[in-house]
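HUMAN: Forgive my ignorance: could you write out one protein's sequence and backbone structure tokens?

ASSISTANT:
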Amino acid sequence: MRILVTNDDGINAPGLEVLLEIAHEIAGDQGEVWTVAPAFEQSGVGHCISYTHPMMIAELGPRRFAAEGSPADCVLAGIYDVMTHGRPDLVLSGVNRGNNAGQNVLYSGTIGGAMEAALQGIPAIALSQFLGPRTQPLDDPFEGARVHGASVVRALLDKGLWDTNDDYQLFYNINFPPCPAADVKGSQVVAQGWRPGTYFGVEPHHAPNGRRFLWIKGGAQAVDSGPGTDVRANMEDYIAITPMRADLTAHDRLADLAARL
């Protein structure tokens, strides 16, 4: 198996090293693992691509590349420039530092990388580690993903649903709970949730030179999103597995809207 790995935290992020361990275990001794990751952190860029300007790409080592672009850019670079002897069989994106559950999904560069792979017709999985008070004292805050990641990915590859056409390709979002690996109760297939009352906002600050800047700030993460959702599963110490599509249509509102108009 040929696996392409990317992330949004950057080429030197600790979560990427965890993902490489997972990828090598999945690929096996006869497989290949390639890395194309952002040269600098790209958190919050979503499915952005560098459509209006070029990006530099550098080879840092065998099958290891850094690109000055988004995770989606990195996937495109991996498919069309780096892996010239054949497309990857699987794209893994992460392991993100922090959860990509609830409305975080809509901002996530980790999700954006997996989504781009899905649009290219390649099986893709995004992986994120929910952090919190119970992971903070751990020597390895990515412990949950490191211990359970390969088995969850393998289960999806063996038993998961994978589309066989190019229309709205399916991909998967995995969030590991904010607890020690030994406390993980298992996995649940759940929907993307919505944290009520949780929003991104801005906070103004003045630099030493007097200039005024705005910092983007997020809301509380330990907010229940209801039964059958990713945040609830994580808060109850389950790995959350969510099937996703690159389709933002509100299908449940189509008929009602058509009747009204």
Observations:
- Residues 143-159 form the longest helix (17 residues).
- The domain at 2-194+223-260 is CATH 3.40.1210.10 (Stationary-phase Survival Protein Sure Homolog; Chain: A,).
- The radius of gyration is 19 Å.
- The chain has six helices and eleven strands.
